[in-house]
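Colleagues,

For the teaching module next term, I've prepared a clean inverse folding example: a structure given as tokens, and then the sequence designed for it. I'd like students to try predicting residues themselves before seeing the answer, so please don't circulate the second half yet.
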């Protein structure tokens, strides 16, 4: 039986967990394919930007009610290739060019392998961690690679929320981080695209 765990994988990828390695009090763990998992405490923060784009408003309070674990960095190309042997960007540092559905299939695969529930983070979990990235010694959250979030893209609401997961449905999933993957691939390997 799987333990009740939530783990974020940054995708490019991130992993989240609420009770990962619950019998161990270490702040950092390493799973069977080498993903470092960092414990994040429960807390609250203000999400949004009153001076930002229209879709970053309104600023609202978000409570993250339980601690969880998140991967220290994005999933590497090598780690993703453990799941998908024919991964075409295996020579890259991080898993790029991965769809939201592929990221979730990877999470299902690693969940079955580890007996722990993995998933991509919600937008609010990602924002909470990113706002405190240096406090928890996480890396690359604002590097050029986009990272998938669990939520559908949609407007913020003007009330405090506890563990929000965004709107019920939509036409696109939320991404956070840097540039779209295709720009990075074109920049790093123009011979593949031109």
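(Answer key — instructors only)
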């Amino acid at each position: 039986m799987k333990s009740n765990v939530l783990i974020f994988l940054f995708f490019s990828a991130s992993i989240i967990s609420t009770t990962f390695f619950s019998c161990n009090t270490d702040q950092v763990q390493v799973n069977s394919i080498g993903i470092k998992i960092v414990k994040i405490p429960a807390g609250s923060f203000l999400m949004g930007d009153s001076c930002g784009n229209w879709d970053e408003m309104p600023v609202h309070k978000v409570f993250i009610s339980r601690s969880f674990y998140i991967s220290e960095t994005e999933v590497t190309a090598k780690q993703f290739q453990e799941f998908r042997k024919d991964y075409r960007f295996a020579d890259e540092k991080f898993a790029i060019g991965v769809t939201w559905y592929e990221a979730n299939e990877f999470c299902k695969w690693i969940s079955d392998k580890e007996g722990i529930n993995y998933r991509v983070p919600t937008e609010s979990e990602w924002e909470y961690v990113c706002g405190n990235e240096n406090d928890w010694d996480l890396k690359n959250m604002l590097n050029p690679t986009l990272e998938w979030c669990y939520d559908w893209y949609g407007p913020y609401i003007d009330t405090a929320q506890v563990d929000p997961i965004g709107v019920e449905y939509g036409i696109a999933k939320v991404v956070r981080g840097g540039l779209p993957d295709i720009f990075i691939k074109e920049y790093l390997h123009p011979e593949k695209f031109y």
